[in-house]
Specification:
Layout: E1 5-7, H1 10-22, E2 27-32, H2 38-51, E3 59-64, H3 84-93, E4 98-100, H4 127-130, H5 134-149, E5 153-157, H6 161-173, E6 179-183, H7 203-224, H8 230-243, E7 247-254, E8 270-277, E9 280-287
Parallel strand pairs: 1-4, 2-3, 2-5, 3-4, 5-6
Antiparallel strand pairs: 7-8, 8-9
Length: about 290
Amino acid sequence: MNAPELITDPAAWQARCFAARDGGARLALVPTMGFLHDGHLSLLRAARARADEGGRRGLAVASIFVNPTQFGAGEDLSRYPRDLQGDLAKCAAAGIDWVLAPADPRAVFPPDFQTWVTVEGVSQGLCGASRPGHFRGVATVVAKLFNLTRPHVALFGEKDYQQLAVIRAMVRDLAMNVEVVGMPIVREPDGLARSSRNVYLSPEERGRALALSRALREAAELAGGGERDAASLRARARARLEDAGARVDYVEIVHPDSLAPVPRADPGCVMLVAAQVGATRLIDNLRLP
């Protein structure tokens, strides 16, 4: 198990990645904010496999960068969990070759930075309504990472479903030559979606947080049994969350690509929920049968 090479200078990273790609290497990138959990590890392992497609060992690379531009006022930027040495060990176990981890956010967003990427349609509503500017920060940092890395493929988790839709729209609209792969949500044995922010939950709050995954599973069972009225399914899910003491941000059923709300929960639609448990905002989603 070889430790990945740690690179802190984005310019050095860019030079190395460009040289590797020009030399014929296949690059697979996993952008993260660190404090890696099993969900991230599934992406890292998939990146290793994707980099090696074609029978020749490629480069599986990851970024660890707590992006300040996707945090709003009063959010948890200063206390977002960080563990670089632990993350590097996990990257090593997953077979990652290089890790970009800028020590100073100004290396990515210097004081004179003034160019932003805004994806208008799919960033509206849901988390876009609750976190103004969030997806502008996400799209901009991912675009910059793509420009620094020139990956053939980039992997993201489906837990952040709207984020994945934003990135796919950006790649399509700007003709970025990157394959964007969404990977399934990784859950705890009791169903809670893995998240770096789960560390904020007290034992009592963690028990209440299970209401998110349970509400989604219940909706899927009802839809599978023939209940297709989206309003009814949303109301049931909201009630379950409120009964658990969660402060509901949204419960919505949307088209899987456009994220437009739908009146009927037809097969393939996605139910998304966001709620605050204690001081922690959690999100989850499930594709309906």
